[in-house]
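ingest -> validate -> predict -> emit
validate: passed (alphabet ok, no gaps, 445 aa)
predict: started
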Amino acid sequence: MRSVARIRGHTLIVRGGAVVRQALVDVAARANWRSWTLSACFLATLACAASSQVGNPSGPGPACKDTRGVFVRPTPVVRGLSTRVARFENAVRWRGQTAIVGTDMPYFGEPVSDSLLFAYSGASLGAPSFDGWYAMPRIAAADSTLVLVWGEPADTNRRRLAFVPSRLSSLWASTFNRRSGWGKPEKLLATSEIGWSSGNLVTSVKTGRVQMAVPVFSEAERQRRVVYLARDAKGWRHMPVPGTDGAVSSALTEARDGTIILAFVASDPSLTHDENSLFITSSSNGGATWLPPQVVTHGGVRDPVVLVGSDDRLHVLWRQMALREDGVDVIRHVVSLTLSQNRVWSDPSDLHARPGFFRFTSVVDGCGTVHVVYEDWHGGGEVGDVDYAAFRNGSWTEPVHVLPGWVSIDPFLMLAENGEISLFLLGHRGTAPKGKLANYQLVLE
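emit:
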């Protein structure tokens, strides 16, 4: 049975007529499966499970490029720019090249690094002059400038072990251009809790505006709410998104006609017992007003991603947590069957990743194929693989290891306008858990 999206807080329509309830799974317990050798990278992954969702750019959309589903040519990235590996957050195409940002990733047992690793076409771009820490840096391209946004953790104890802090108290931005370098950092938000780990930067090809949506804890209202931020010639503007009370995570994209689409996870106020349900809302006037949120599904949602296909249909993916004790988590996908604002969604299609998977990232190409990569920890153990699967013609392909015979972790995808899909990851040849990790880029053929 297909589900009909409905306004948050009103009549419930659920697939198959069954009302599901949330049963949270203790993800942290799975950390015991990891070896201490890879703990630094693994803990960073947990803290930013949704941070590297690199969505499709707005505008005409990427070209349709047929692929055979194999990532090839693992090429070292930013070699010589750092003595350590980096946890890259995202990459964009800018002025004909690739700009990529991340933070130096110390190995387990070393103090947390506050240095920013920023590369552009193989050369370092340095960092803004900032007397603080960089956590979860993201970049977006806007005409002749790069826009950098990062968070500063509430806890900046340098004796803490190597992991990315998940509790942020401020959000900052700076711009870079080739003539004058980095601009002065600007504080965008300051409060006791900012959900930047689920945020993503989106550049509108229609307006050139860089925008994002971030769950923020309101001290006055004593609850979280999504705040929409956009940068124009006059600077950054902030607007709370109505109907997003209690939001714990969010994802943003923009359709080709300029409609802003926001997915967020919150509780449904019309239900007595509900947690982690998924909602969609949109704005057709640059975030000035928003439609009432509509429910996509109830219960067990984490790490949502929303993508716009070349046919203007919405693809929504998320980690669906097991709602029964004997169940397993899956990566769930639905697509809008209508282009109207009152969307009708397809039946869900589940990608059955191995138990214990983490950190999935996805893009939809110009052919309408959804590509997904994620960390496969083989149900536990000390050695991880990055796995790949694609959703095409109504079904998922069988997941495969991207680099058989390697240890690989920490993936994210980038889709170029020419249709080329790049994968960035950490890895090393061989399956020894204590091997030296390095950053690599691969291309899908």
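The longest strand covers residues 168-177.
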